[in-house]
Specification:
Layout: H1 2-30, H2 38-47, H3 53-56, H4 62-66, H5 68-77, E1 83-85, H6 92-103, H7 117-129, E2 138-139, H8 140-149, H9 155-158, E3 177-182, E4 187-192, E5 195-203, E6 214-217, E7 220-226, E8 233-241, E9 244-248, H10 250-255, E10 265-267, H11 270-279, E11 285-289
Parallel strand pairs: 3-11, 9-10
Antiparallel strand pairs: 1-2, 3-4, 4-5, 5-10, 6-11, 7-8, 8-9
Amino acid sequence: MRHSSVIRRAVLAAAAVALAAGCTAQAAGGGTASPSPVAPSSSAPSSEPSAEPTTDDKPSASPSTEAPSPSASPTTEKPQAKVLMGDGDESAQVRELQARLRQIGYFDRAPTGFYGSLTGGGVKAFQKKRELPQTGSVDETTWQRLLGMTRKPTPAELRPSTSNKLDKPDPRCMTGRVMCISKETRTLAWMIDGKVQSSMDVRFGSENTPTREGTFKVNSKSRNHVSTIYHTPMPYAMFFSGGQAVHYSADFAARGYNGASHGCVNVRDRGKIAALFDQVKVGDKVVVHW
């Protein structure tokens, strides 16, 4: 009896050990128990993507790895030099630029202070001669090179008393009786059958009240007109587009290109506009162009 009871106790102990081993295996496979947390952590990185969070925790290090790229971008953009003056700009510096270009033969107009295609063409030719990037705009390198080759313009060079030089007439101005008005050179040429009869300096509307461009006709004339909107004198007014007209401007005569009209074409030479007023007829063509 004693021997059989010993054998029985040994069998029960073995069964208990086998059962314990089975529970542990289920817990590991089913993930419902925590007796063996070491096994999953050691095997997961090689077999399951669940180990990737340990690498996802490292993006905090990746910004420091990628940080150099933003600081590297300025070095990539360095060749694109900052533009000091370019198309459409209007300033005293542009006027000086034109006067300096004129000194060395790259601008054959009186300075206007407005950066148009003629100014851009002169700058581009200057850059080409000096083997600089031919952008047609003025950067620091172009400006410094020009300053080194020219002298400070005199007041007479910046604002010549003579009229601006006419550019080549627009093709629309080559037939009939036409007031051919160039926004590029700021000139008005009175032309008959392609021949210039007289010319004068003009200025235009501001950015907020621009002078319209295109082909028009003189629809009315008023020798001593006064604006019904701004209540300012508009002598020798020749209307061509709504309320826009060619007329004499005392403000233009006094301040030059430091001011602007409300859309009209201002003339500063009273004698010339008075003579023109007597020659122009209602129905004559008006061409406003670049």
